[in-house]
Amino acid sequence: MSLERVLSAVRALLARELVERGLSVNETARLLGLTPAAVSMYLSGKRGGELVGVLASDERVMALVRSHAELFVDAAKRGARGPIDLTELAKVISNILAQKTPGVELEELIRERIRLEQETATRAMAYSYRMRNPLVRALFMQIATDSLRHAEILTMILDHLTGRLKADGLDISEEELEALAQEEASMRESIADLYKVGDPVLRALILSIELDEQKHFQLIKALQLAPRLPRGNPGPS
């Protein structure tokens, strides 16, 4: 299945979610890099194809779409205008669809994703070297380093699934995690004033920081659900 077809269906789902959350058709169009007419066609079901229904019936896909929609609405309220690149989200959803295909192994999906992350990192790094504007260069370097980190995390997941890496339990207290969560929440609130800058590149950099803070908060909350090692157990040496 082509990535462009998945992208079209993802745009349709996001358009609906964004409008349902209070954004106008014009605001949604700006965020998604579309014309208002295209958004209206997505909302009416005239664009996106049958794949929209397939994705809408998958809770894993819709959880991703809804979480991204919430982030985009929050970003729009803080002044972000878009367009937002949905390529990575479409790749993740493509992998979810592939898991439904008989004969496709999870390990192969992870290896393919590692390859894609490494390719993205290489491309973004090459772009950064070409940029004269140091702020734009910083944006591309962030994309490159994020993609490399994703590849590293996926490699660790693959090693864990194949038994090469042992990772049992969480050796940090609930109190320590909650303190981190509160710090991240505070930083998310304090970043709002930074959006007073007018330069779109500066705003993009600030948005990248804010999205990281939101991600950190969600990661910490997810960790709070993980099983912990017994007290006094130092964990693997």
Automatic annotation (TrEMBL):
Gene3D superfamilies: 1.20.1260.10. Residues 14-47 form the HTH cro/C1-type domain. It comes from the Archaea. Signal peptide: none annotated. This is HTH cro/C1-type domain-containing protein. It comes from Pyrobaculum neutrophilum (strain DSM 2338 / JCM 9278 / NBRC 100436 / V24Sta) (Thermoproteus neutrophilus).
